[in-house]
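Course assignment 3, question 2. Fill in each field.
Student: A.L.
Task: Predict the tertiary structure for the chain below.
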Amino acid sequence: QAASLMSGFTNPNVYRLGLNGVNALLSRVYLSMENWEKADEFADKVIGNYALMSNSEYVSSWNNDFSSESIFSIYNDDLDNSGTNTIYQLCLIYLDLFATPDFVSIFSNTDVRRNLYPMNTSLNVNIVSKFTSRFSNIPVIRLSEMYLIKAEANANITGQEANAQSALFTIMQRADVNAVMPTETGQALKDRVLLERRKELAFEGFRLFDLTRNKKSFVKYRHDAASINITAPSEKTIMPIPAREVNANPNMQQNPGY
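Answer field:
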């Protein structure tokens, strides 16, 4: 309904949702629903309206308010008084969030995204430098996600694996000049898409949903404690319904495990 009311409001500034943003959000929702055809259709509605940055621009772009890939971001400045409640503070001031060795190891030495996770030699950990200031705008929807949605959707549509490989390679090649066209098919291709989503969308809030959607068991690595093995499907990957919602509706059933 929102999309139907937004004709003529296609591309406002990056801090307001227009038709492109709504279509991008629809693509994400359809992916979660495993409606592959619709996920691909709405990703295509968005892709042609934006441009990927070059390999050389990518890392430095995270210092900017937005880029040519920004579809929707949350604006943030000193008047918003974010103070200590930002992911920047968490990653770079308090140093409470790190990139695990398991994660850093998935990048080739020529993948520019590896530079977003430099080693802090005094702590002997890889820090997360995607978010460079407490005034950083928060990217919610980026163009690279649309290519990765297109890749996953087509990997799940019979006869469309070549389209999935092509969309995936677009993101791989931008990040790594030595990347080669993926040749995987079937489940191996779907797993490759998940790997590339992990690289490109790290620390932007997607990974748990990707693993849950694809019913993947995984290891939760921790720096200061033992790792946790999660076997899919797991109640631990589903968040609780807020207590106020349960209290307000006697028909609401809390998620298992809470």
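Instructor remarks: The two ends are 34 Å apart (CA to CA). The beta strands are 70-74, 98-99, 119-120, 125-127, 138-142, 218-220, 228-230.
Grade: pending
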